[in-house]
Amino acid sequence: MMHWFSGITVLLNLFFAVETASAVQTDQLNVESRLPAYLNTDTAIMVFERHSADDVMSVTMSFQEQNTLQVPAPPQTVTLSGPGLRSEELIDISSWPDGEYKVFVSVDGDAAEPLVRGIRKQTIIPPEPPDGPFSVGGDKMFFVDDWYLEQTRGLKREVHPAELVPVEPWNSRPELKCPRNSIQSFWMDSNGKLNVEILAQTASRQTVSNYWVQSTDLENWTVVSAPAARHKDCSLVNLSTPSTAPANPIYRRYDPAVDGEVDLSQVRVRWSGTEENVMWGDIPIPYRSRIAVWEKPGGEVLILGDPITIDKHLFALDEIGTWADSNDNFGEARLSRDGKTLSCYQSRLIPRHDPFLVHYDNNLAERIMVTWSTTNGVNWTPRFFDAPTLDDPWSTQHYGVDMWYEEDRRLEFAYHKIYDVQRQKVYTELAYSRDGICWNRVPGGEPFLRNGAPGTFNYGYSITTGNRTRMSWDRYCYEPMQCINVLHFMFMSVYSKDDRSFVTPEFYADRFDGRMVGEYGVENSPVMNWYDSWQEICDMTKTQMFTPVFMRYRQDGWIGASPEQCQAEIITKPLLVAGGLSINAATDPDGCIVVEVLDTYGNELAEYCGQNAAVFKGDDVYAPLSWSNGGVMNLPSAPVKLRISLEKAELFTLKFNDEVQDSFDRADTTFSSNTEVIGDEWTSESPVNWALQNGMLAADYNVAGEYVLQHTAQETISGDGRGFDVSADVAGMFTYAWGGVVFNYQDQDNFYAVRFRAGTRWYQLVRVVNGVISACVTKEDALTEFSVGTLYTIRVRSTEEYQFNFEITDPAGTAILNPTTEGKDAAQNFTGGAAGLYVRSASSSDVPDVLFDNFSVMMH
After folding, report:
1. C-beta separation of 341 from 369 below 8 A
2. Which keywords has UniProt assigned to this entry (predicted)?
3. Residue (of 425, 528, 440) closest to 484 by Cα position
4. Average pLDDT score over residue span 462-469
5. Which residues of 87-112 are buried (b: 16+ CB within 10 A; e: fewer)?
6. Beta bridge pairs of residue 707
7. 470 with 239: CB under 8 angstroms?
8. pLDDT tier at 1, thresholds 50, 70, 90
9. Which residues contact 592 (CB under 8 A, 6 or more apart)?
10. Phi-psi region of 628 (alpha: psi -120 to 50; beta: other; left: phi over 0)
11. In Å, what is the CA distance from 619 to each residue of 235, 588, 622, 656?
């Protein structure tokens, strides 16, 4: 989460002091490194700018690493002459060790102290992709890189920018317009209307109103007194990883001899805030710093060493900065998939000089995002997140990151907030990583969240915000974002100020203190491309406003893979998957995508290749594929490769459905508690007798109790972008017999179930905890009585932990019989675990207690 609104007053007060300390130059020459950092680059560039074309000067550069004092190369002398004032000198740094190098620049014959500039070199080795086979059952496969791919031919990748949907009810209700507006809650209702809760505030954050609006077309918004109920197919996922500090912490310093190895899952990175003289217990803490702490159960908080970073805004003339020099733009801490590495993210502040200094920005140093990682909680290693390159505008800086996982945490995406300082605009790009340390952009990619033209709601800022809720609905995803209609320096000028009458041309003349004019002044900047006068700038500044906006994009459609020309081919590495395959893709009317299956040696499997291949045409999000003219729906259980041919088409993702089904269409068996006669993947810890009868599964036992038959082939996991569906046909065979489906099964005494009672209108969502059953939902209002001996279909879906949607449908599958279709376990008992079938036996019965058919469980 970004904290760049904090401490604005401090930043503004430092504005002039920073310039005095940073904008150092001789009377003859400006010089600076072209890039603030050189990431995975063998050549550095020093840029020289003479003040007069008449000057011919000899300049010597010498180099020294500021920590080790190592000299990586002999001094280098260049002669600057000719009509051009600017020249560049290439420096071979390929043999230099990674480090922070001071460059001492002396003009021959000038007795002044040398200028000190910096070359910051770092090499980050990307993770090596495994050869496979990959277990991808129940997962998605994105095509952002070649991680899963053995070879590609003629393939390109590109970012698909989101559509921006402003929520502007004041277009029809002007009295609702406020300087600050933010989205609090939102969902789609059963009528297909988007319900949005808006918090309206003054510039100084005083609440004006809190109200709900609805829209069917995402353009016209109607104020309503209360929202409608959320549609059962509307999925909401919280992408953030909130961590609340203990209410009454007991602070002390970490002692490895006493405390032992740090538990990384309990480590948090806390910000000390903007107030000085901070004390955590009796321990003084630098203000505006980030510190790793071990928050142990019970409220004890162990401080794990010195601060990782401390904000810094003043640099001495001979300083090039250190990794710990920070700015208050950062992202949250993230624990790796294997639990062995913890990373946090924060901008590093790097001093810069002319000709690469934007004099009219509030911060006369560059903000570059850094990944800090630790394997023990104490020692942290910094790496540049994604340093600017020569292809970026020279004033590119970073404003924070918001992240989320895909592919069962094997892939991580980031909304990377980019600040174009020359133009005073902030927008958002996409980045991705396989290890949370080495981050990549799609080459030539567009911003994912773009700025608009002057006068539009997203003119100055188009970024993600603190509300990290993602809604999935009808092929699209929606996320709240933050848009501001003015440029950065305008925003900073009136931040939190309700009265803006002070904004005049005279105010800006004083604010910029001579930096309005001149070669590096505002009036020679790209900002002035959009304005004719300072009065016009003042008028625009006074309109500063936060507009509530949704980004809207295709589900899992951030980055697409398509042919560079007309055709492309992909062959994957070996994959381990059994189940169906769905495709998220779009084709031209005369295009297609062909998916074939090969063995691990690359040989074609006849029923999956050639005329039997799966062919996709059209535009769909996760359309199921089939082979052999629809006769084959599932992939082989042995490791296989996929060969994917694209013609005038774009592929976003594949989803390996990993659906487990059992129709029980096998030979009849006699009743037995030995579940091996039913199938290898069925098991039971209960003494119930099971039998296959006439293509169905029968359960019979004459001792009352809660009993489960579990299917071991598939887990039921929800949350963090994953979910499950469990369904079965169930018939109670005597009055008051209970039958149902089970999920999140831990053992015979701990699970959830949805069940109904034959001969009544009762249905329930129950939890069994340590053998004790209780109801999360219990109702006696089914639309009809559940007839004895009749099969009803129970379906359970979950996309969020401890929350479940369930339906019980009639034999024809046309009517939902349970009016209450949602339930939640407020006690939050179980996550993960198996699915299965439920029976509550009676003390005696002459017929089987319950019959089951068409069992299915699927992860998505």
Report:
1. no
2. Signal
3. 425
4. 92
5. bebebebeebeebbbbbbbbbeeeee
6. 839
7. yes
8. very low
9. 615, 616, 617, 647, 648, 649
10. left
11. 22, 9, 10, 19
Average pLDDT over residues 740-769: 95
User: Which pLDDT band holds residue 132 (cuts at 50, 70, 90)?
Assistant: confident
Sequential DSSP letters for 682-725: EE-SS--EEEEETTEEEEE-SS-EEEEEEEEEEE---BTTB-EE
Q: Are strands 682-683 and 575-576 parallel, antiparallel or unpaired?
A: unpaired
Phi, psi dihedral angles at 305 (to 5 degrees):
95, -165
544 compared with 707, residue with greater pLDDT: 544
CA distance 729 to 661: 12
pLDDT given for residue 722 in this prediction: 73
Both tokens of residue 320? 């090039």
3-class secondary structure, 244 = coil
Residue 6, pLDDT score: 30
Greatest CA separation for the chain: 110
Pick the closest to residue 649 from 598, 590, 597 (CA basis).
590
Which letter does DSSP use for residue 101 in this model?
A: E
Read off the pLDDT of residues 298-311 as tens digits, 9 standing for 90 and up: 899 999 999 999 99
The whole model's pTM is what?
Answer: 0.80
Residue range 343-359: average pLDDT? 92
CA-based nearest residue to 641, from 150, 137, 152 = 150
Give the Cα separation of 514 and 518 in Å (integer).
8
pLDDT at 519: 62
Residue 590 has pLDDT above 90, yes or no: yes
Chain Cα centroid distance, residue 846? 56
- Select from 595, 576, 574 the least CA-distant residue to 649: 595
Angle 618-624-630 (CA atoms, 0-180°, nearest 5)?
95
Quote the CA–CA distance of 28 and 720 in Å, as a whole number.
58
Strands 115-122 and 38-39, bridge-based pairing: parallel
Question: Taking the chain, what is the end-to-end CA distance rounded to the nearest angstrom?
Answer: 28
Kind plus residue range of the DSSP H or E element containing 331: strand 325-335
> Using CA atoms, how far apart are residues 630 and 417, in angstroms rounded to an integer?
46
